[in-house]
Structure prediction request, 364 residues.
Amino acid sequence: MTDISALKTELTSEIQAANDLKALDDVRVTVLGKKGRITGLMKTLGQMSPEERKTKGQALNVLKDEIAETIRAQESALKKKEMAARLATETIDITLSPRQQRVGKIHPISPTMEELVTIFGAMGFSVAEGPDIEDDWHNFTALNFPPGHPAREMQDTFFLPEDPEELEEFRKKLLRTHTSSVQIRHMKENEPPFKIVCFGRTYRSDFDMTHTPMFHQMECLYVAKDVTMAHLKGCLTDFVRAFFGIDDLPVQFRPSFFPFVEPGAEVDIGYYKQGDGIKLGKAKDPADQKWMEILGSGMVHPTVLENCGIDPNEYQGFAFGAGIERMTMLKYGIPDLRTFFESDVRWLEHYGFDPLQRPNSATK
Ligand code: DAH
Prediction:
């Protein structure tokens, strides 16, 4: 027994002398490892008398547990000491400038729509919405496209698959071909007067330099008792001049046909050739003035008002619709519509907007 307590004293001081984790582990191996001192003593138990084996065995087991515990205690003391030493020496240099991060860009369609909201908001319009999946009634019939009339084919429509036997024409589901359907929804659900703008996706079966199957449109509708074509001209002129940031941008109205307006007009803005490219604005010499069409407009057709439960003898209105990509391409000089939807990050890097520096007429 004295052997064991002497051994305990010896091992304990060896453990406490270990002053780092590596040294402590070495001690652990020499004591408790396969060839360790306590392990060796355990092996001698087999040659003892049963009596002796019992007392010695118990004492050795106690010793083994105590030593293991001492090692654990020393280990946690050493770890604490190490941590304290690291905390004392390691410091963070908070004066280092932050690493340059790659900042994402905002697709140019979004700032264009935001800018349009700002311009129309300033003119007293509020934003309305409607669904992308429409029915024929809201997209065509209520807008005075007669059933089976070729005017319906003006727009290549994506119809949703359904049993052709089942539905009358005006109930057929489709992807809206224009945002004019939102006019109908708004007029059905609200009492005039109202001034609304709507932005959203529209769909047509078309694909080339200037057409993609999905694109965005803006729609504007103003219905009140005394709205005239003069309001339409004034509003449109102010809007295109504000949007393109050209105070004397020439604007021209050309008679045109859309079933939902009477009279209808296409609106052109002026440009002229400059070098290899073009420049929006008034040409110095009137002979150089050129025109490009940018939107469709007109006075809301009396039948359309009636279809929405509004008395055309009491109310009148104007409406217009424009392609948002086209406006964006003209304003920022983007040559190909298809690139808007190719998800090419290099394109976005070039034409996209810094999230913190977005164009906004309100800040001009
Ligand atoms: N919805 C027409 C289109 O997509 C554009 C349009 C023309 C809208 C005349 C109007 C309008 O509101 O009055 O081609």
The chain has a mean pLDDT of 91. The pocket of 3,4-dihydroxyphenylalanine is lined by residues 178, 180, 219, 258, 261, 264, 296-298, 319-321 (CB under 6 Å).
